[in-house]
Structure prediction request, 256 residues.
Amino acid sequence: MDLRLKFNEDEMNYDHVRPTYPDELFADIIRYSSVDEGSHSLEIGIGTGQATKSILQTGCLVTAIELGDKLSDLVKKKFSKYDNFNVINADFMTLPLESDSYDLVYCATAFHWLPLEEGYGKVKDILKQGGTIALFWNHPFPNRKDDMSNQVNKRVYDTYCPSDKEIVEFGEKDCERRTRELEQFGFKDVKAKLYHRVRTLTSDSYIALLNTYSDHRTLDVKIKDAFEAEMKTLIDEIGGKINIYDTIDLYLARKP
Prediction:
């Protein structure tokens, strides 16, 4: 099964528990791209629209592309009051799109699913000259050593999903790979910026969030059930809440 379609299995839970992005991030995208009522924007992998409303509110025409049919139906209803919104249920990489036709192409926590060279190449082709590419991700980090709720989280992961890979928080150094990619594939005026926030979730909300991640959804059923039961028990024993330290990274660049 295409792992991208794992997000299509429980669209209501995804919409309920996946976080949106900081207002400052959208302000930075809008300022950099100068999109307004006369602009055409394309969103790759809209999901349930956590990154859509702020762009729609500029008045620009937003075309969203979404692989999952249930997710497409959800956002069609969610943004039905906007006459400047359209969603296409398709694979971005195989959908024919007109060259030099968009002022802004943006993608929230989904661009890594695309083949690297072909993905950047297609975005560059469909952007107008001077048009903006905006890519951003959210990196949740529930593994700070000085946070009791994070210690509990790591204990459960070490038991049910052991890994030798060192767990580190996303930082400025990690942005370099993406900025190099944008330059490598011919974009100019490349900028990167980080945003930070802390989310505090109940044990139930945290488990619901984990169920929006493809790697968690693909666990063996018995392991998944035991993992979730122990996670809930241990978090509830320390007060019922877990802190998640988010780092959001934004990359902006223009087509020459």
Remarks:
- The chain is about 35% helix and 25% strand.
- Confidence is low (pLDDT under 50) at residues 1-10.
- The two ends are 38 Å apart (CA to CA).
